[in-house]
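User: I'm putting together notes for a lab meeting next week and I want to include a structural view of one of the chains we've been expressing. I don't have a solved structure, so I'd like a prediction I can at least talk through. The sequence is below, exactly as it appears in our construct file.
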Amino acid sequence: MKVDILSLFPEMFSGVLHSSILKKAQEKGAVSFTVTDFRDYADNKHRKVDDYPYGGGAGMVLAPQPIFDAAAAAAAKSTSLKKPRIVLMCPQGERFSQRKAEELAKEDHLIIICGHYEGYDERIRQHLVTDEISIGDYVLTGGELGAMVIVDAVTRLIPDVLGNEESHQQDSFSTGMLEHPHYTRPAEFRGLKVPEVLQSGNHAMIDEWRRKESLKRTFERRPELLEHIELSDKEKAWLAEWNQSN
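Assistant: Thanks for the context. Below is the predicted structure for the 246-residue chain, given as C-alpha cells.
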C-alpha cells in the first residue's frame, strides 16, 4: 500500500512513521509513506494556502488550489490501476471505526489531507475527496493527529504486517465485540491466579471461555454493540443470566 499525507506540518510525522509497527511495515515493503507540505503547491510566491471566507466571519479557510494540485501530483505517482482513496480529516466526517479501518486496508493507495484553520473550501469536499473522517466528536488544532491514528489502525491490518494473521482478527471491534481478557506468566502473581481453563490445554474450552468473556465485557462496557451481533442460543442464555443478576 502507498500512503500520501498532505500536511502543513510534515515534521509531526517523523517519529510516528519511523517507530514500532509502522517502521517494520515499511521495512517489509508492505507500505510506503510520503508526507508532503502542500504549501509547496501554492501558486503564489509567499506559499499562501488560505484566505478569508466569503461572506465574512472568523478564521481562515484553506483554498482549493494547493490541495487539488498536491493531491493530483500524489495520484499521478500511483502504480495501481485503481484510483486512490482521498481522505479528508474533518470533525464533520464519518466517525472512524475498526470497520472503516478494515475497508481502507484493502486499498492500494490512500491520500490523506490534514487541514488547519477554520475549515476547507467546500469545493474540496464536493469535488476532490472520497471520504471525510473524524476520529471523535471533538476539535483538534489540525488533522495530523487524526491522520496518524488512521495510518496506524490501517497499516496493522495489511497482510503480514503483524506476522500472526490472528493478531488483529481477535482485536476489540474486529469481531463486533470487545476483546477477551489476556494473561501471561507467572500463573500466580501476589496471590492473583490465571484462570485454570487457560492452563488446561483444552482449546475448545479455551475458545468458549474467551467468547464468553468477550461477550460479558461487551455487555458490561459497550452493550450497544450487541445490537448488531448475531448470537448463538448459548450466548443468548449467558446474556439472560447476566441481565437477571443486575
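A couple of points you could mention at the meeting. Residues 25 and 161 are 5 Å apart (CA to CA). The two ends are 47 Å apart (CA to CA).

User: Perfect, that's what I needed.
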